Amino acid sequence: MAYEGYTTFTASQDEGVLTVTFDFGSVNVQGQEMLSDLNGLAMRLERDRDIKVVVFQSANPEIWVCHYDTNLLKDMSTEAVSREEAKLLDLQAVLERISKVPQATIAKLEGFARGGGHEFALACDMRFAARGKYKFMQMEVGMGILPCGGGASRMARQVGLGRALEIILSARDFDADEAEAYGTINKALEPDEIGEYVDTLAKRIAKFPAESINACKQMVYESIDKPIDEALKAEAYWLYQATSKTPAVKRFQIADDQGLEHDIENQRNWNKLVMDVQNIN
Amino acid sequence: MAYEGYTTFTASQDEGVLTVTFDFGSVNVQGQEMLSDLNGLAMRLERDRDIKVVVFQSANPEIWVCHYDTNLLKDMSTEAVSREEAKLLDLQAVLERISKVPQATIAKLEGFARGGGHEFALACDMRFAARGKYKFMQMEVGMGILPCGGGASRMARQVGLGRALEIILSARDFDADEAEAYGTINKALEPDEIGEYVDTLAKRIAKFPAESINACKQMVYESIDKPIDEALKAEAYWLYQATSKTPAVKRFQIADDQGLEHDIENQRNWNKLVMDVQNIN
Amino acid sequence: MAYEGYTTFTASQDEGVLTVTFDFGSVNVQGQEMLSDLNGLAMRLERDRDIKVVVFQSANPEIWVCHYDTNLLKDMSTEAVSREEAKLLDLQAVLERISKVPQATIAKLEGFARGGGHEFALACDMRFAARGKYKFMQMEVGMGILPCGGGASRMARQVGLGRALEIILSARDFDADEAEAYGTINKALEPDEIGEYVDTLAKRIAKFPAESINACKQMVYESIDKPIDEALKAEAYWLYQATSKTPAVKRFQIADDQGLEHDIENQRNWNKLVMDVQNIN
Q1: How far is it, in rounded angstroms, from Cα A132 to Cα A190?
Q2: Edge to edge, what strands does the sheet with A53-58 contain?
Q3: H or E stretch covering B129
Q4: β-strand B126-130 against A126-130: which pairing, if any?
Q5: Could you tell me which of A53, A107, A92, A96 has the C-alpha nearest to residue A216?
Q6: Is the ipTM of this complex over 0.90?
Q7: What confidence score (pLDDT) does residue B262 get?
Q8: What is the pLDDT of residues C96-121, one digit of tens each?
């Protein structure tokens, strides 16, 4: 399956990792071209079991992904709607679709991510940012709107209410260290470290079975939207979704045959074991 | 609209910022007078679009807001009720009303906040605390009750379950640095820095449109109470609530006219841009 | 009530603290014997109002609790089930029961906790880990399944989505400091400090009334599973559950008699007061 023909990014595949590199005009504006590309990308990813991880990065030395296109924003409706009439916005629909692709998604943030650009980062599974290069801002409150590409919804799923409210109400830039302290990103890294860190993580995850990656990911998202008793049942559902398609039983047989549970030396080396069994299919 | 006639605090207005200074007896006890004042304050704030931000501080050098009045607590009912019979308590009702006022609310914590006093802080949108002066405690478990001014409910919306449970079950004092590490406050600040930090933040937010402040705030609170698909629809609802009343379209037109999306120099200066457009109405 | 006859751990009672020490084979495997013991333990704890706190530790110098028994995992069903057919797994049911016992539960982590072992730690109310000795890993994704002992469900209730997804998708070891930074544990402590830290905390909580410990704990868990308006009503319900069985009214009478709310000196000494009233019943 070829990942070609996009206008706003290029995509290159290396074993199970797809690296998507935004490169669109001077600032990687998030407009209809990018939404169309992202929607097309998601459609392909949903049917692809060879790609296990997607890394989103930028060719632009200063901007990861820019905010939503002001050329679209200036024509927004100014008519209030009722709760029932409110429908998903294009940006929301595309980012939610990206958020739930079966692959693990990583935002590798080496430049600005503001407004819709930051909302896109929040729709990825994980976020790593380069010190000195990364800044994020949700400026919407100052423009007269709110972060409506999932940003208002996803912010409090990443950080506590108080910090979510400060980020969204202050409309100021946060750097990588503040982002790490507040919890919007997983980790802040040095600019010369982030490449290897993300690469190692992506390649590691890409060795794991596609169906267990998907089960893990969907379950974590389901979990916070359900009371614990329903969440636990969803775990059981996803367990059998996974075991029906992965070599789980064979791998546990191998682990059992090695006498894993009676041997402290084997227990010390779980990190090796989990990688060793990746060739058991 | 005058913010006068309160017994337990004074309120002074400086442009869009209302500073509420608790000054009631020797310890700022949280009794019927304070609840009555806070309820009256909320009622006014709900109809006021000129005030954008409320800062809660204390005139008492050691206590921000004291715990709930023991004179009321000693007369509590000792009769268990059914789930159906359980009704909102006065403290819960008032703090929930304060929590949802259309303004951004900031707790500027330069003294003790224990029991109901800390629950009041948790009902504010943001919390900043002075090192060496701030301490918080939820002592309820040791008194034979639980934090029932929203504290048990709001704690796990600020920090993870494990830390929420430790705070509530240990009934011990936490200082500003521990509060920051555990995430109950946004930031710990030096005593000589907190004034300017809060002032700068409050004045910044106060420049933004009242309706987008309200939309942002209500949406963040809604978000964690709803599954993601419903939360996203709520964002769309609040978007048009905002655009129908704010100069959003004009501001994005200005941004677009400046060629924002084709100019890296403009992108670098988003912080300036977001403040510059505040005079476009 | 005697806590005896267990195969996989011993339990010793010191006033209100029950210390459960896992000591089963070479690696403390989490198999049917341990589940059976834990289920039996929970059954007793549910009826015991003398034990207020349970500390879970290990006699094994390297392993706290091992992962789920591979001898059971290798025989897992490989048939997908529908959402309706999905039923609680044994590990889920037992850990959920442990999670909701009326006592405060503390995981004292001085060795590895991987897979189901870490899921057991997540089912405890609080977690403290020893630097240099503790490591945790959720390796399930690499084995072809997902953390299905409540781990996928409970992870995002402890940390934000991004870090929960990294932990579960990377299947790597995290040490005590990373665990603290990501928020899966309450605190990382030095190996020679953790004993006293946990002991002090456990003894402190054990002085408090059983019914208020239970009310606090159940309410925090309820809180994140309910919208705020329902959560607040649950607080009111638990308040009267507590006051109907604890000496709360008498204790607040004492506090009131001491003129607590008019005396700054008394306010400074809340930590002393909360312990002093523990003999008022």
Answers
A1: 8
A2: A9-14, A17-22, A53-58, A104-109, A126-130, A187-189
A3: strand B126-130
A4: unpaired
A5: A53
A6: yes
A7: 81
A8: 999 999 999 999 999 999 999 999 99
B161 inside 8 A of chain A by CB? no
Cβ atoms C138, A270 nearer than 8 A:
no
Locus of tokens 């949280």: B30
Q: Which residues of B touch C277 (CB under 8 A)?
A: 142-143
CA atoms within 13 A on the CB side of A269: 13
Domains and CATH numbers, chain C: 9-205 (3.90.226.10), 210-279 (no CATH)
Q: Looking at beta carbons, which residues of chain C come within 8 Å of A217? A: 165, 168-169
CB atoms within 10 A of CB C55: 22
For residues A248 and C144, the answer to whether their CB atoms sit within 8 Å is yes
CB contact under 8 A, C261 and B142: no
Please report the DSSP string for B2-66 in residue order: -----SSEEEEEETTEEEEEE--TTTT-BSHHHHHHHHHHHHHHHT-SS--EEEEEESSSSEEE-
In the numeric block, which tokens belong to residue A124? 């990825």
Closest CA to C182 of C197, C169, C165, C198: C165
- Those chains having 3 or more beta-carbon pairs within 8 angstroms of chain C are A, B
Interface contact A145, partner B, CB < 8 A = yes
Chain B residues whose beta carbon lies within 8 Å of the beta carbon of residue A88:
232-233, 236
Q: Do B212 and A83 count as a contact with CB atoms less than 8 A apart?
A: no
A199 - beta bridge partners?
none
Distance of CA B249 to the CA centre of its chain: 29
pLDDT in tens, B156-171: 999 999 999 999 999 9
Neighbours of B, requiring at least 3 CB pairs below 8 Å, are A, C
Contacts of A106 (CB under 8 A, 6+ apart): A53, A54, A55, A56, A124, A125, A126, A127, A128, A198, A201, A202
Please indicate whether, in this complex, the C-beta atoms of B172 and C275 are within 8 angstroms of each other. no
- As a whole number of angstroms, the distance between CA C110 and CA C59 comes to 10
* In the predicted structure, residue B1 carries a pLDDT above the cut 80: no
The number of residues in chain C equals: 281
Q: Which strands make up the sheet holding C126-130, listed edge to edge?
A: C9-14, C17-22, C53-58, C104-109, C126-130, C187-189
Distance (Å, whole) CA C204 – CA C213: 12
DSSP B156: H
Q: Give the residue-averaged pLDDT of A245-268.
A: 91
Average pLDDT over residues A161-190: 98
Put simply, whether C162 touches A (Cβ < 8 Å) is yes
Q: Provide the shortest C-alpha distance from residue A18 to chain B (in Å).
A: 26
Is B71 at the interface with chain C, CB within 8 A? yes
Distance between CA atoms of residues A171 and B208, nearest Å: 9
Angle at A230 between CA A228 and CA A232, to 5 degrees: 65
As a whole number of angstroms, the distance between CA B141 and CA B139 comes to: 6
In the structure encoding, which two tokens stand for residue C47, read together? 């009826």
Dist. CA C110–CA A69, nearest whole Å: 52
Beta bridge partners of residue C106, listed in sequence order: C55, C126
* Predicted local confidence at residue C262, as pLDDT: 82
Q: Are C123 and B162 in contact (CB under 8 A)?
A: no
